[in-house]
Prior knowledge:
With 151 residues, the chain is an alpha+beta fold. The chain has helices at residues 14-21, 24-29, 117-149, and strands at 3-10, 37-41, 52-59, 62-74, 78-85, 90-100, 103-113. Helix content is 31%, strand content 42%. The chain has a seven-stranded antiparallel beta sheet. Helix 1 (14-21) crosses helix 3 (117-149). It is globular.
Amino acid sequence: MPVIEYQQFIKAPVELCFDIKRSVDIHTKTTVKTKEIAVDGVTEGLLEAGDTVTWEAIHFGIKQRLKAQVTFMEKPNKFVDIMVKGAFHSFVHTHQFIEEPGGTIMIDKFQYKSPFGPVGVLADKLFLEKYMRAFIISRAKALKKIAENML
Length: 151
């Protein structure tokens, strides 16, 4: 099961970083390359524990839907979402926020299992893990820019 971890320092208060990360509206602004939109569940505002959201996006030239649920939330330090339905066999995405002098360390930990057994494992090695890492890093950098420009 691949695990992708990425840390981003943001010159903004932990509460702001936490809220922009769980904002459906800001999520769509940080995923313009994949044309991601919320089409069901919570489609605007801030996600809370127990909420579900269905995202529609284009990945690898194919329109896909993915339903995720927020299963844990400890404001303003951590929340976890899991895939309920979608292209992966499963995933758990942990979002952690650590207050530091001058800002916040935002940590993404994305653990996933690809579908299709050995074929999925091969896809991970060939392209999927690299693609997912780039996607997570791109969002983190966009969130940093948004948060720092809000101050």
